[in-house]
Write a structure and sequence with these properties.
Layout lengths: L2 E12 L1 H9 L11 E7 L2 E7 L7 H9 L1 E9 L16 E5 L2 E8 L24 H14 L12 H14 L5 E5 L4 E5 L4 E6 L4 E6 L10 E2 L4 E6 L2 E7 L2 H4 L10 H13 L4 H9 L1
Antiparallel strand pairs: 1-4, 1-10, 2-3, 2-4, 5-6, 6-7, 7-8, 8-12, 9-10, 9-11, 12-13
Helix pairs in contact: 1-2, 3-4, 4-6, 6-7
Length: about 280
């Protein structure tokens, strides 16, 4: 199954050890042979490299693991499940402009419901370039938070983060939905059932790494609680949000949603602030 790696740090740092371990998860130490990608902050924008081939066999990723220094990273190794072609358009991470920012997204799991004609979560503002449920869900999330987007994280989380937490639980109710996301400033992580985090603080800098499975021998790696949205900037945690209990109760361990799941997901979306008549009912059937 696909795997994720992310970093937020207070300064650009080398990532040779974790990136090399992550590279081998793409077809050698784990069965994720269908592509790899990495987005890393380079000045005021993301640089993105990706290939639809096994990460463990990629000279390019091996070189990046040796030389890359950054303070904000999202990386992915892919296992195509359900099967879609191993082509660049289906290779994570995905990039899109929204709300005056460049957004990056990578997903672990599967939520096939979102791409079905009568499925739960269809983007309205733009069409995905590939065929994956992951890109489809990414565009949907951006559509839904755009109307309430705020650029500043103060003492209380802004409306768009609350909506993102609720909608993430909504989508997770249709399968398995762990993801890393960034707006170019923050690292946003949603843990459904397979995500770990590792903080690091020294006198020189602070950082946090997130990964589907621990990438180093450090025993401080810890699982992210199911249904939790974490937000970091410069290595510091700014917010930890959980969806309402009613939404969390409907998150299964990857199964086909029942009528009760659909009703619970509708409630979660409406409780995030949408108008039920115009936004909730049509998209959830």
């Amino acid at each position: 199954m696909c795997e994720l790696f992310g970093l937020s740090a207070s300064r650009a740092i080398a990532l040779q050890a974790p990136l090399e371990a992550f590279r081998l998860r793409g077809g050698r130490s784990a069965d994720n042979p269908d592509g790899w990608g990495i987005a890393y902050r380079n000045g005021d924008t993301f640089a993105v490299s990706k290939e639809p081939l096994a990460a463990a066999r990629s000279p390019l990723l091996a070189q990046l693991a040796l030389t890359l220094r950054s303070d904000l990273v999202i990386a992915h190794v892919r296992k195509a499940n359900p099967p879609t072609p191993a082509v660049p358009a289906n290779t994570h991470p995905f990039v899109r402009e929204c709300c005056g920012r460049q957004w990056v997204f990578a997903h672990n799991g599967k939520v096939p419901e979102v791409v079905e004609p009568q499925g739960c979560c269809h983007p309205q503002r733009s069409r995905p370039l590939g065929e994956t449920d992951s890109e489809h869900a990414f565009y949907f999330l951006l559509d839904e938070i755009a109307a309430v987007f705020g650029s500043v994280l103060g003492s209380a989380p802004p409306d768009w983060l609350g909506r993102l937490a609720a909608l993430s639980a909504d989508v997770a109710a249709y399968g398995q939905f762990n993801f890393l996301m960034s707006d170019g400033e923050h690292l946003i992580a949603y843990g459904h059932d397979r995500l770990h985090w590792l903080p690091h603080v020294t006198r020189g800098y602070r950082s946090v790494m997130l990964a589907s499975a621990p990438l180093t021998a450090d025993r401080r790696w810890a699982p992210v609680a199911p249904g939790t949205l974490l937000v970091y900037r410069n290595g510091e945690q700014l917010a930890e949000l959980r969806a309402p209990a009613a939404a969390l109760a409907s998150i299964p361990a990857a199964r086909t949603p029942s009528d009760a799941d659909r009703a619970g997901a509708t409630h979660a979306r409406c409780s995030a602030g949408q108008d039920a008549a115009t936004a909730c009912a049509p998209r959830l059937g």
